[in-house]
Automatic annotation (TrEMBL), chain A:
One of its GO terms (cellular component) is plasma membrane. Signal peptide: none annotated. Keywords: Cell membrane, Membrane, Protein transport, Translocation, Transmembrane, Transmembrane helix, Transport. Residues 310-438 form the SecDF P1 head subdomain domain. This is Protein translocase subunit SecD.
Automatic annotation (TrEMBL), chain B:
Part of the Sec protein translocase complex. Interacts with the SecYEG preprotein conducting channel. SecDF uses the proton motive force (PMF) to complete protein translocation after the ATP-dependent function of SecA. PANTHER family: PROTEIN TRANSLOCASE SUBUNIT SECF, PROTEIN-EXPORT MEMBRANE PROTEIN SEC. Keywords: Cell membrane, Membrane, Protein transport, Translocation, Transmembrane, Transmembrane helix, Transport. This is Protein-export membrane protein SecF. In the C-terminal section; belongs to the SecD/SecF family. SecF subfamily. In the N-terminal section; belongs to the SecD/SecF family. SecD subfamily. The chain crosses the membrane at residues 129-146, 153-174, 180-200, 231-249, 255-276. One of its GO terms (biological process) is intracellular protein transmembrane transport. The keyword Kinase does not apply. It comes from the Bacteria. GO terms for cellular component: plasma membrane. InterPro entries: SecD/SecF_arch_bac, SecD/SecF_bac, SecD/SecF_CS, SecD_SecF_C, SecD_SecF_C_bact, SecF_bac. The gene is secF. It comes from Parahaliea maris. Forms a complex with SecD. Part of the essential Sec protein translocation apparatus which comprises SecA, SecYEG and auxiliary proteins SecDF-YajC and YidC. The keyword Transmembrane helix applies.
Amino acid sequence: MLNKYPLWKYLIVVFVLAIGLFYAAPNLYAPDPALQITGESSAQVIDDAILKRATDALEEAGIAHFGETIDPDGRNALVRLRDSEQQLTAQARVHRALGDGFIVALNLAETTPDWLSGLGGQPMKLGLDLSGGVHFKLEVDIDAATERRQEYYLNAVKRALREDRVRGFVSLDEQGNVVSQFRTEQLREQARAIIAENHPELYLDRVEEADTFRIVASMTEQTLREIAEYAVSQNLTTIRNRVNELGVSEPLVQRQGKNRIVVELPGIQDTAEAKRILGKVANLEFRLVANMDAPAADKQQFDYRSADRAGMSEWLERDVIITGEHVSNAAASFDQNGRPNVQISLDSEGGSLMSRATRHNVKRRMGVLFIERKYRTRYEMNEAGEEVAIQIPYDEKKLLTAPVIQSALGAQFQITGLDSPLESSELALMLRAGALAAPISFVEERTIGPSLGAENIRLGVKSVQYGLALVVLFMVVYYRVFGVFAVVALSFNLVMLVAMMSILGATLTLPGIAGIVLTVGMAVDANVLIFSRIREELNGGRSPQMAIHAGYDAALSTILDANITTLIVAVILYAVGTGPVKGFAVTLSVGILTSMFTAIIVTRAMVNLTYGGRKLKSLPIGGVNKA
Amino acid sequence: MKIINFMGQRKLAVVFSTVLLIAAIASLATRQLNWGLDFTGGTLVEVYYSDSANLNTIRDTLGQGGYEGAAVMSFGTEQDVLIRLPQGHSDKEGSALVSLLQDNYDGNVELRRIEFVGPQVGDELREQGGLAMLLALGLVMLYIAFRFQFKFAVGAVVALIHDVIITLGFFSITGMEFDLTVLAALLAVIGYSLNDTIVVSDRIRENFRKLRRSDPIEVINISLTETLGRTLVTSLTTLLVLLALALFGGEMINAFAIALIVGVGIGTYSSIYVAANTLIMMGVSKEDLIIPVKEGADQEDLTP
């Protein structure tokens, strides 16, 4: 029994540890407090002049700043500050100096050196409970979306029967099914064929009752699922767009479960402001492009929204054909010739309004306006002589597109003549964002102040330190030199854990720190198992080298069983849990995996390197009977 | 090494566990749990006063301001105050409340955090938590039945249920708040206690195969004695770090640490007395482990 690793095994251990150290390193560089400046519209380019206005404002207020950078594409600029206490004042000053049209957001700028970030090194993200910020949970009202669809089917069936002159009575029953009643069976069969042709997705059932012949048309599970899916994804898109407007540095908008959306905005304190923007109503208007000779009182001029057509505008008629609430879907697609287009679906009422308006206006153009509620800031003195910012709402209407009407339009039509798939998907996105989605409500809201976040970090680090110190002390006293091995492995375990979390881009939360602390306590378990086994073998009369070998061997299957079962629990926690529970599950499972490596392979390497291939009389592991 | 006669006290252990379980279940049935905001819904506001805060003044201020039924308590220090509004207040009232407090106080009132949880979230969370617990127990039982033997799986799961009920009972009796982090702690307790039980079961299996003796009680006593050192050391290191967490981790993590301390304590006891005891009650014997079970579960272990 020589207990020697071949050289390549040592090299692998050293290599893995070096990688761990490398990717854990970015966490050592504390981020700088910073301001991020972005233009409100995508057309706004941030140049040196704008940046100078910002830095001048800071200098005037005596706020120290450094390391200003502008993105290569001029989309945003970053100004680093010396003192995080001054971040809020700095934000107000710069916002004031630049005026509306710019978003000035609080940010934490990474200070990871280029040689680290060049190889993908990045620090762990901090959760809201550590960085401070706002957490919202929104619920999409799927019932309302379903009801709207039921109304749509009711109107669609009524219209289809009327057009084909099939006389009957159509209504919604309590379950929201479309029930059509007819006098004769023949009429019913006619109606059935019509409905089945127009709406193959509906499930049709024949019912006879009190000498009327009925068809009950109900939505299939599939359709209901699609409605729910659509309502949620549409809201997700809309909320993402609006969150971007808030100018938060790293926002999170995520779907959770069937009908929930989680929004996390680090650094934001003002929930009222955030809610106002999230709940903001965007809308669409479809209007005809005005004829050249139209009187001025009947037309209005609008600018294009996209950056490519900045400065261009069109005159539109004042009359609105339809608004966004009639738009039920918009999707980017391709025509038979592979050219990009956008498919638009309207509800039945929107469809008939559209067909009435376009029937006699073929070859004219139709403009689509995107309407956003925006806020203008005005500064006023209050009674106490302090300057306060007052937000005044106004509607901004910009032109998305103005295509030529090729033929009379109905409930389904497409916009063609788009330059690229990018343009079509952008247009579809804007149309969806402007359409009225299923209503949403706030079901959960958490605000964590920045001071609490900082304190949580401090307390978390402190408890990791104390916990580690206690374990180190105990292990060294109890297991002597082998205890030192275990402690070194434990420190590497922490490094590996941090490195893995950084590589995975996982978010560190307060329960996550608790998970790390728990890992520190539990990771030594593997070493305790091995060492007590070695002691047993020594007491059983084996030679030190034999005992080391047998100890590691016999403990391995126990360690695997124990860790795999704990991992099962951690994975379930991750799958089922939300928020804090998830954060805990992540560090716990990563910790289990890294601890298996460090506790088994790294300690073995150290033991082999120190004691391997030598004749030994005893091992400095403590607790062995001298008999 | 002297074999400790653990199983000699097994009748006593049954009585002890039964008493704890009855106390826990009785308390859970009558007092239930002091559900935290995560489960009940409502609004919670934490503020920091620049001087020590007078809770009675704050209560009066809130009462006059129309926030009846607000629970005001200090949170960790004299300056930190926690205010809990019952269900029924809207999600907008948190910040209004903070400005109300500031208007009635000369110093500075700093907002620490506001949490609003709607009623629909809480119920779902309770369901989800229960589901997670059952799922964890079920999967773990499957894994152990596959790796060991069915009787060991029953033993482990009985020990786990024992630990979870007693830890829940502890929270019910002390009236400590049961929030989402405590739920996470409870699931971690399942993981930890399982770890312990498996180490012991592993040794019992090994000894059943290795030792000539076939009296289950004797084999189990030997196995428990052999693993006792490890069980105690691991529990000790874990308790040490948990102690650090409970003392220095701050208020938000305190209940989590306490839940784990109780759970780890009970888990250590249960892996010795509950899991092994269940094995004996189910009549575990050498034959259970020597003959490969029909599912072929232990085959890879027979040819080391």
